[in-house]
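Suppose you are handed only these lines of text.
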Amino acid sequence: MRVYSGIQPTGRKHLGNYLGAIRHYVTGQEQAAAAGDESIFCVVDLHATTVAYDPKELRDRTYDTIAILLAAGIDPSQSVLYRQSDVPEAPELTWLLTSVTAHGELNRMHQFKEKSAQQRELVSAGLFLYPVLMAADMLAFRADRVPVGDDQRQHIELTRDIAERFNARFGEGQAILRAPEGVYPTVAARVMDLQQPEKKMSTSSGSVEGTVYVLDEPKAIEKKLKRAVTDSEDPPRIQRDVAAKPGVTNLIDILAATTDRTPDEVVASLADARGYGDLKVQAAQAVVETFAPLQERYRELREDEAAIEAALAVGAEKASAIAAPILADVREAMGVGPRR
Ligand code: AQP
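From them, the structure of the protein bound to adenosine-5'-tetraphosphate can be written out as follows.
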């Protein structure tokens, strides 16, 4: 049972990234190890080049993101942790998979529509092909389970379609590529922006005050959560209702996820609260406590870039060793390169 997931090297990862993905990487790492298999985590620096970015910053932001993953509990002796650009197999597979990916499918991707609208100077072909590179990442490793947030459902579905189409076109009855399963959190699969709770918390399009970063100071975290937009229902009602009470629902889910309780348990524990103040204070405290140990470890790990590079070199070697034979199967099936 192989677990795989990728994350962008934006450096400033937010609460949505943490609750929707990063903390489930650690659970996935344990599950894969228990099944005697690898879990594989990738910091996707090639994906980061598909929108306007600063080349002088990309390496540093990649180190930041790696240090956050290590601080959150990814253990390179148990998992494969690698930088996307260090391993050539998935980029090669991307090109090969374009032969079984429809232009129309890529045109319908929500993320492409949203991100292309944000680009001022150039909508790159890379942004259009982003989902194929993402599919290639998972398929180059024959991943079984992919822990991701709810916003990635369309990408996972496309990956499954590409794998199945590849097998039907080139497999001659064999499943050369494996269609992975998306694994979505049961709570906080889509953390919403604290100021605009009808929109997801986001790196590129969120509000500054509505986005809590993993590395935010405790005071900043408290301020953002205490100022979270709720609603003016009178009397105030602490209940989950995504459509009518998106802000309150988001806070309940954040508190539930950070205290390992169900949303129902959180609601029951606040039955006597008179306003939304208690909910906000408790959510702020729980987020601060969740991030405190991570932030401490991050500060130690981030300082040593040579150690990060050394860990990445090991990760790249392990990743290539897994992906190379899978790529050889793909090339053979497609008639590309010399006969085996
Ligand atoms: N709001 C969210 N709630 C739950 N999960 C989320 N994820 C992202 N936002 C939320 C999950 O985080 C993982 C990494 O996402 P990414 O690599 O796309 O990183 P990012 O670019 O920093 O994430 P954003 O904020 O989603 O960026 P924008 O909005 O700029 O594209 C993924 O598993 C994702 O599901």
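What can we learn from it? Residues 3-183+305-334 form a domain with the Rossmann fold fold (CATH 3.40.50.620). The radius of gyration is 21 Å.
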